[in-house]
């Protein structure tokens, strides 16, 4: 009977190879098959062994190389053929990475699966921008939400952001107007400070500061593109650069 391979759901962190965990780097170096997202940096993929098969399943808004169901089937098929598979994801596999769906599919097929955590996009972006998601004087609660979730207008976001809280929004660039409207409708002050972090931890990273009411204009004027995170809360206004940027925003 042919041996079954293992599926490793590996978090690649925010981008640079030196932010990988040691476990992630070692698995990439030995994997026979690597199924990777489009945001995985080329320096990470160069760690793969010369004969490894690299399969891109890059996702972009309104266009997927492979539907998620097909990715699940691909992982199981390769493992059942006796190959160890690294499913390489930006950030952490279990934070908006669909790792839960892939792990469930693997278990249902009788395939061994291991999850290797990575530095999440929220942690990586906040650290690169030197924004502390928690701060004794500003925030003791952090919430993560998806900005492209279905039924956005019907969800209750009250209490997710405000005094003593930090809100991190993934995948929110294209829905920035709806996000600002939703948060203000649910009670958040229009002058709540925020930061938009584009290409976190990469050489081209930008940190843009503003206020909640001005979020749509900020994203449009600066032509913000994914990958980008929106961080909302007083923690984004705790340095001189942030204070100056917010004062300029308020004066406009």
From TrEMBL:
User: Which Pfam family name is an example for this entry?
Assistant: TP_methylase
Q: What is this protein called?
A: uroporphyrinogen-III C-methyltransferase
A single GO molecular-function term is: uroporphyrin-III C-methyltransferase activity
Q: Which InterPro entries match?
A: 4pyrrol_Mease, 4pyrrol_Methylase_sf, 4pyrrole_Mease_sub1, 4pyrrole_Mease_sub2, CobA/CysG_C, Siro_Cobalamin_biosynth, Uropor_MeTrfase_CS
What family is reported? Belongs to the precorrin methyltransferase family.
Q: Which domain of life is it from?
A: Bacteria
The opening ranks of the lineage are: Bacteria, Pseudomonadati, Pseudomonadota, Alphaproteobacteria, Sphingomonadales
Going by the record, the broad EC class of this enzyme is transferase
Q: Which gene encodes it?
A: cobA
Q: Which PANTHER family does the record cross-reference, listed alphabetically?
A: S-ADENOSYL-L-METHIONINE-DEPENDENT UROPORPHYRINOGEN III METHYLTRANSFERASE, CHLOROPLASTIC (PTHR45790:SF3), SIROHEME SYNTHASE-RELATED (PTHR45790)
Q: Which organism is it from?
A: Erythrobacter fulvus
